[in-house]
Specification:
This protein is mainly α. The chain has a domain at about 5-40 and about 75-120. Helices cover about 60% and strands about 0% of the residues. It has four helices and no strands. It has helices spanning about 5-30, 55-60, 75-95, 100-120. The longest helix is centred in the N-terminal third of the chain and has 28 residues, at about 5-30. One of its GO terms (biological process) is signal peptide processing. This is Prepilin peptidase A24 N-terminal domain-containing protein. Keywords: Membrane, Transmembrane, Transmembrane helix.
């Protein structure tokens, strides 16, 4: 595997992690939950274990359901993780030689997706 391919795959993984993180932060912000609280199943309140939180992979292994109670895990989670992973990989591919621009672009992508998630989760709700 050449250096550029490794770089792109690395940023795909980082993008998936950031997608998972901002998805959780958007949800927690909207529901006024502490940002450092453990992730829990919305159905049964079971603490989600670290191996159940691996971006993209865990959703498929668990077949989109809580391991404890079987409640559905929204596809929005895996869609956000996959989307962020793809955006990060594409940005890494385009700005492989220019790390400053890459970091600025990734920061912008992350902020825009976070705002979008926060707005979409609050759509139709009145505060």
């Amino acid at each position: 595997m050449d250096e550029k391919t490794f770089f792109i795959l690395w940023f795909f993984a980082i993008g998936a992690l950031f997608g998972s993180f901002i998805n959780a932060m958007a949800y927690r912000t909207r529901h006024r939950i502490s940002p450092i609280a453990h992730s829990r199943c919305e159905g049964c309140g079971h603490n989600i274990q670290p191996w159940e939180e691996i971006p993209i992979i865990s959703w498929f292994i668990l077949l989109g359901r809580c391991r404890h109670c079987g409640a559905r895990i929204t596809i929005r989670m895996v869609a956000t993780e996959t989307g962020m992973a793809t955006l990060y990989a594409a940005a890494a591919s385009m700005f492989y030689q220019d790390l400053t621009r890459l970091v600025i672009l990734l920061l912008g992508i992350t902020i825009i997706v976070y705002i979008g998630l926060t707005v979409s989760q609050s759509k139709g709700e009145h505060t």
